[in-house]
Amino acid sequence: MNARKFGLVAAVLAGTVLASAAATPAAAQGTPAVDVVVGNNFGHLPMFVGVEKGFFKKHGVDVRLKVVNTGTDMVNAMQKREVQAGDMSVTTFLKARHGGDPFRVIGIIMSDGTRSNADEPLAIVARKGSGIRPGNIEDLKGKRIGLARAQTSDEYLKMVLARRGMKYEDVTIENIMAPPALAPALKDGKIDAVVSWEPFNTMVLESVPESYTVIRGGGYLSYIMVITAHEPTLQTSPQVIRGLVAGLAAASQYTRRNRDEAVEIFAKWVPGLDLAVGKKAIQHISFDPRISGPVMQAFEAAEDDVLKNTVKGGQRLDVPAQFSGSFLAEVQKAYPEYFTDLPPVPAQSR
User: Fold this and answer.
1) Among the residues of the chain, which ranges form H helices?
2) Could you give the domains of the chain?
């Protein structure tokens, strides 16, 4: 990794490091409650695990989850101060920051710290008779595509089309904001294909007869899920934020090691999930909480795409400044055991 990239990561992970404070979880008595908005998909799975298995309480915070459908719902909950922290995708976060929302990234939930383009949870799935051949993106021209507008699936489709020399206007978008509605719409022939994230891609494949994957992932973007907090909260409640980040690190490791159980926990919170489907879907997801060189590269690339596709003419954000990375740095120092099962980050990316 070159000096500039190393400096970016170091700057994010540095800051006001109070490792001694991080080493001692707050006493269980009088545990502060923290409201967190999360999505009803597997990108947020460690948050459910952390609540159910007591990892957050172990680290001094009582997390209460507000479960919603999309990134727009997450941002709205944050804007209305219904919650103190919120999960969202990297693109949703960057768009919110361009809109002036005072959020900062305090941790990573879904990611692969060794790569800058991990997008396997995203896929395009078509129905039989759609005329769309597997791997042939050009066949999407003129087709009806179901997805949630202005969400990560929408950004992914734009990038897939652009790389094949196609325009967004070459397809007809059917806006389906509630992902569970994708499968019925495809099954009934109202749309020709869907673009979504897990577990909904696998749900479609399992519930729509003879549906098939047109493309999964492909390195078009890095589908990262972050946890964010309001800037004032970072200043007024650092110990709470530190406990939230520590609990997430512990829950992420438990999720990596106990994927089937994690799916069973998720199903308690999001009714209607077929466990067999969920246990297939989770195999496409990495839960690596590290802020690494590849992760920073992914954020820079996501900012490029946001400026190109969504916030056209906007002023570029200082990506490292969007992080409050000292909390994760403290947790990594105080609890190295939460990270021992992860593969090493390539030396040039550290």
Assistant:
1) 3-13, 19-22, 45-52, 55-58, 71-79, 90-98, 152-163, 182-187, 200-207, 231-236, 238-257, 259-269, 275-281, 293-309, 326-334
2) 3-117+222-349 (3.40.190.10), 123-216 (3.40.190.10)
